[in-house]
Design brief:
The complex is a heterodimer of chains A (168) and B (379).
Chain A lengths: L7 E6 L2 H12 L8 E3 L6 H18 L3 E6 L12 H9 L10 E4 L5 H8 L3 H9 L19 H11 L7
Chain B lengths: L1 E7 L7 E4 L5 E6 L5 H15 L5 H6 L19 E9 L2 E10 L8 E9 L2 E7 L2 E4 L12 E3 L18 H10 L2 E3 L9 E2 L13 H11 L3 H12 L3 E10 L2 E10 L2 E6 L5 H19 L3 E5 L7 H14 L5 E5 L3 H4 L7 E5 L8 E4 L9 H6 L6
Parallel strand pairs in B: 3-16, 3-17, 10-15, 15-16
Antiparallel strand pairs in B: 1-2, 1-4, 4-5, 5-6, 6-7, 7-8, 8-9, 11-13, 12-13, 13-14, 17-18
Helix pairs in contact in B: 1-3, 4-6, 5-6, 6-7
Classes of the chains: A alpha/beta (168), B alpha+beta (379).
């Protein structure tokens, strides 16, 4: 009866704000509800990586149709030399080579709450908007300053999930 | 869509206001005994009236004892018991108000006030026994028609409606078609003897609802089938076989690897029956919605991996049409609602009334689920 052998996307959110973004995507009628699974938030990007490497990697090898998104904050401290690119590769380098094609790292610059304030939208509505018109024509919101760094990873993700995640 | 529900002097609800304006889906949370079910009883009171029960005595004899003298908050008989519901239908605001008192030496509650307005224009107004209709009289005197109703009868179900466009018809139908559920799957059977759109709280007339829905809206089968097939990939079809005069029986057919299995609906598990209920809710909202649905703990009976999908399927269905209000103690369900859509109920003690506030307006540390488990979310 398990659907885990069918293609599905598992999202590992860093915190509740990212979880609400993901919930918004799941709420979109453009998404096949049951193909999107949102895990419990773990409080911190390093814990996302820890959960991924210690638990999810083994599950991905068990379920070859599982695609994973690590949904983290790129809240980097420039004074310490942190940059979004550096954060990305800190995470990406933890992904085993055989799973790199099925694992994606996405997130907002700073924190989703900042995007919520900037756009005067609920996080759920932001998530729902981001799911609109995908995969063919991602919503212009993806070009926002706080999201546009995701473009290469988003394109790679959409190419991978377009055959099962979307209802249109 | 319900915009506001106001209740005063009824059970644990005193000067209580539930504001649902602009919330297509909302979650009620709170410890046991804080009034979540009482809210559903109030909604069911309105629903029962719209379904034709107009006597105070009958409402008191309802299996849930919806309206009895002991329901005055802490026996405070000197103040009226008041119910108000404000609903947005077809861009018009319907407000229905109903108030009771219990004078000395009365054994039954008495209606002291009742009125229905549509966008601030009265449809009818009642003071004690006297009902005034605001529609023009057909007689020559051009006065508003008036008639008397027994003090212990509610006027809403007995006023004659003039057409399907009559606000009375629109409002009563909407109230009657509300879905208020706290299902008990073990008593939900697959045999129907009637056709209805009026599902009962415990789900026991589910098969009648299935039969009624498909008779009037055959296309509902597609919605039901699409939803269930995602959960049961081996589902082949749902048959509703005639087994006697006016009697039908639901048989569910599964097929996998060219092996066929037919199961009577009654033989499904409790959780599986809940998926069928959900499928009908989605189909009903699509076919004769927008409807309002209250579902008390929809996650009961469901396996953990299904809870999130189940809640989101409901929220998605009501995203653009209708409105759903659910209760839950389940962390997985709670995580599927943003704090702006979660209403927290609380009571300091059995001697104090229910308080309500949006979770997004309550300061707390850490995650909602953790704070709830620690009992830290208090009003």
């Amino acid at each position: 009866m398990s659907n885990l052998y069918k293609p599905h996307l598992l999202v590992l959110p860093e915190d509740e704000a990212n979880e609400q973004l993901a919930n918004g995507i799941k709420l979109s009628l453009n998404i096949n509800n049951r193909t999107l699974i949102i895990d419990k938030p773990v409080k911190g990007w390093m814990k996302v990586v820890k959960k991924y490497t210690e638990q999810v990697v083994a599950e991905m090898r068990k379920y070859p149709s599982r695609i994973v998104v690590l949904l983290i904050d790129f809240d980097c401290d420039a004074k310490k030399g942190d940059t979004p690119e550096k954060r990305f590769f800190q995470v990406f380098n933890e992904i085993p080579d055989d799973l790199k094609s099925r694992t994606f790292v996405l997130g907002t610059l700073d924190e989703p709450e900042d995007l919520k304030t900037k756009l005067s939208m609920s996080l759920e509505n932001i998530g729902e908007t981001l799911a609109e018109d995908c995969p063919d024509k991602p919503n212009p919101l993806w070009n926002d300053d706080m999201l546009k760094h995701n473009t290469p990873e988003l394109e790679r993700l959409l190419e991978t999930v377009k055959h099962f995640l979307f209802s249109k | 869509m319900i915009q506001r529900l106001y209740v005063h002097n009824y059970r644990c609800l005193e000067n209580f206001e539930l504001n649902l304006k602009d919330l297509q889906s909302a979650l009620l949370i709170g410890k046991n005994g804080t009034g979540k079910s009482t809210i559903s009883f109030v909604l069911q009171l309105f629903q029962s009236i719209a379904r034709g029960i107009n006597s105070v005595k009958e409402l008191g004899n309802d299996p849930l004892y919806l309206l009895r003298p002991k329901d005055f908050y802490r026996g405070r008989f000197e103040e009226p018991m008041r119910f108000e519901i404000e609903v947005l239908l077809n861009n018009q605001v319907y407000v229905y108000v109903l108030a009771f008192d219990l004078p000395k030496n009365f054994k039954k509650l008495r209606v002291i006030e009742e009125r229905l307005t549509v966008s601030d224009k009265p449809v009818y107004n009642r003071k004690e026994a006297l009902v005034t209709l605001t529609r023009k009289s057909t007689g020559s005197n051009n006065q508003e028609p008036q008639f008397s109703v027994d003090w212990h009868l509610i006027a809403l179900p007995v006023i004659q409606e003039q057409s399907e466009q009559d606000p009375l018809h629109i409002f009563r139908s909407w109230l009657a078609n509300m879905i208020i559920m706290s299902p008990i799957p073990s008593i939900i059977k697959g045999v129907s003897s009637e056709e209805t759109f009026e599902i009962i709280r415990d789900g026991s007339n589910f098969a009648d609802w299935f039969t009624g829905l498909l008779k009037i809206y055959p296309a509902a089968y597609t919605t039901i089938d699409n939803y269930l097939r995602e959960i049961f990939p081996d589902l082949l079809d749902i048959q509703n076989k005639t087994i006697g005069e006016n009697a039908k029986s639901m048989v569910i057919q599964f097929e996998a690897n060219k092996v066929n299995l037919k199961l009577d609906f009654d033989d499904l598990s409790d959780g599986e029956k809940c998926f069928f209920l959900c499928a009908l809710v989605l189909a009903a909202n699509k076919c004769y919605g927008p409807i309002f649905c209250f579902w008390d703990e929809p996650d009961n009976y469901l396996s953990l991996p299904e809870v999130g999908h189940f809640i989101m399927a409901l929220r998605r269905s009501f995203r653009e049409n209708g409105q759903i209000l659910v209760t839950s103690h389940n962390e997985e369900s709670i995580r599927k609602f943003p704090n702006e859509n979660i209403l927290v109920l609380d009571r300091k003690s059995h001697l104090e009334p229910t308080l309500i506030r949006l979770l997004s307006d309550i300061p707390f540390e850490g995650s909602v689920a953790d704070a709830l488990i620690r009992g830290e979310i208090e009003l």
